């Protein structure tokens, strides 16, 4: 299978080259040139283990990796998850379930994609003999998941930008307490959007990218999107409904990659899927799906820091489909956004989407309410999914994107209970090692070059 840029001015690539490249040379994001129809396979896929389902799905896309090797990579990716099911459904009430996505090694949904992506990078280094420089920006969980998958790997250096003082202390420790010589967590001033903007500028310097073997670990990397599609499919199969029957997924959302991963299945034979985009006070996506206008604003720190984003990178992928797959229209829209202008949703395009918004007071309230009603503790991001939650008879699945143990102060305030996890408790005893860097391309490039070994 080939993968093409949303902006149409870069050559189509195979799967492995797409993973290696990350951001397309024309500044766009890669998408499959065509999408498979899953309908003929759904009946046979019911009851499969998570790794087996992931293999059956991903082999449609990773066609340049031998199937036996791909199967092994996927199986290894989920060996480190707790329990027999990496993504269990937890029933709270009739018609209401939580999809627990925090049983991986860093206790967040990013593990599903980044455990696999780490193994794909290792494979690439082994086959090519060339070193890779992995660059990412994180609003909280991506960095820890990427670092865990790539720590101490020969031939791979990992640089993760994060907004200083705007992630939880435990999220920061997950990045800064590995002790691995190839890991460089970089605290930068400003917001996640500032870090993400600088990252894209570094990738836009194609000469530098080629010089250091640059590759992306953010959700701009299509492998992450495809890997995350699997847990939506896994949950849907567990419900036992028909493809056209409505099922609502409620998704805490910042950079839009997680929601897009699920929505992509609607174009592969699951038209009944619906998506409620749950935002925090940084509500650009709420405003878009409510008012039809996408316009960036300033980022405000919140109790759900991984969602403190006002420039959702993966929005460009959705825009591509909204604009009928026309790269010229995508280029024009993205150029307008870069000038500070707005993008208007085409009439009738929202379709499967609705949205909600939760400020910090609402986050505390929803954590407390869920605890009192169901005896279940949720983290601040998942709490956004319970804001204005519809209980209308449509099967509803709220994605629990992180362990509440990563945000103990907020949980104690809302419930009086302090969640703990042995993995996080161990981090408190380690000495953090991190770095500071300017939030601009030149400073980041200078730091990367200084660490070449």
Tell me the layout of helices and strands.
Blueprint: E1 3-5, H1 15-21, E2 30-32, H2 42-45, H3 50-58, H4 67-77, E3 89-93, E4 96-100, H5 110-128, E5 132-137, H6 142-150, E6 156-163, H7 169-176, E7 183-188, H8 192-204, H9 206-212, E8 214-216, H10 222-239, E9 247-252, H11 257-263, E10 273-279, H12 284-291, E11 293-294, H13 315-322, H14 327-338, E12 343-344, E13 353-357, H15 360-374, H16 380-385, E14 396-400, H17 408-415, H18 422-427, E15 435-436, H19 441-450
Parallel strand pairs: 4-14, 5-6, 5-8, 6-7, 7-15, 9-10, 9-14, 10-13
Antiparallel strand pairs: 1-2, 3-4, 11-12
Helix pairs in contact: 3-4, 3-10, 4-5, 5-6, 5-10, 6-7, 8-19, 10-11, 15-17
Characterization of the model:
The chain is of the alpha/beta class. It has a domain at 89-108 and 222-420: Rossmann fold (3-Layer(aba) Sandwich), CATH 3.40.50.1100. It has helices at residues 15-21, 42-45, 50-58, 67-77, 110-128, 142-150, 169-176, 192-204, 206-212, 222-239, 257-263, 284-291, 315-322, 327-338, 360-374, 380-385, 408-415, 422-427, 441-450; strands at 3-5, 30-32, 89-93, 96-100, 132-137, 156-163, 183-188, 214-216, 247-252, 273-279, 293-294, 343-344, 353-357, 396-400, 435-436. Strands 3-4-14-9-10-13 form a 6-stranded mixed sheet. Helix 11 (257-263) links the parallel strand 9 (247-252) and strand 10 (273-279). It is globular, with a radius of gyration of 20 Å. The mean pLDDT is 93.
